[in-house]
What we know:
The chain is of the alpha/beta class. It is 37% helix and 18% strand. The protein has one domain: Ribonucleoside hydrolase-like (Inosine-uridine Nucleoside N-ribohydrolase, Chain A), CATH 3.90.245.10. The protein is built from twelve helices and twelve strands. α2 links the parallel β2 (30-37) and β3 (65-67). α9 runs antiparallel to α10. The model has no long low-confidence stretch (mean pLDDT 97). Calcium ion binds next to loops.
Amino acid sequence: MSARKIIIDTDPGQDDAVAILLALASPEEIEVLGITAVAGNVPLPLTSKNARIVCELAGKHDVKVYAGCDRPLGRDLVTAEHVHGKTGLDGPVLPDPQMPLQEQHAVDFIIDTLRAHKPGTVTLCPLGPLTNIAMAFEKAPDIMDRVQEIVLMGGAYFEVGNITPAAEFNIYVDPQAAHIVFKSPAPKVVMPLDVTHKALVTKPRNDAFRALGTKVGIAVAEMTDFFERFDKEKYGSNGAPLHDPCVTAYLIKPELFSGRYINVEIETHSELTMGMTVADWWGVSGREANALFIGDVDADGFFDLLTERLARL
Ligand code: BDR
Ligand code: CA
């Protein structure tokens, strides 16, 4: 089978970084057509820089990185330095990137790429707020039917929220964009907190990254060391959840994951529950299913895959 063509839309972020590394380490299954940066964990100048730092860490200097939207569609930007640090990639000391940023806007790159490929052959992998994807759908509605699948990290049902009591960060930052994406006809797979909170970097898993002894293995161990202090304090968990790598792991080994095909709607009006993913897990609404909402992961299988692939870089 040929590699699946994807665009990674991202706001790195340590967990975004690991998701990108996993994709770049897996050319048999994944062909990265480009990486589009969006404002989220930190502002756009940093996310577009961090994306290139990560490509260079992987030794993949030829990946094309595009800068996209610097703010949500209709709200002020909310960032998460309290989780990811001032740079968004705090933890390891990594050199500034030498690779240039592409001149084209990320939204236009997404549109042109979907139009240039046969319908149903390009998958979108959003790992941050959905602003770039929604802008592309608004600007060029014809591309929605051309998307093979959107596999995204965002939302929560049983875990409810992380940035507010009701909402997960990526959806909360740009609920209008999320609404546009969830209403689109493109097939969707959602990795909510319900599953990512099961993908925890425990001490032995972190040790396994470090024991690779490579630049990449050590950097990933240092990133997750940094990132975990926040979740350990907040949830009392055994380590940091690797949210975004669930997306790229799903592309390689979907059998590690299980979920339900259900209706998911986005709250865009109530200030109290803004950005909530109202996920009809129990099938009580009668509303039409629009997304495969993942609930479980074989965490050991996930970390085995990740460690094995990172070792290749
Ligand atoms: C999501 O928010 C960001 O902080 C992470 O990178 C992840 O994409 C988790 O809520
Ligand atoms: Ca992210």
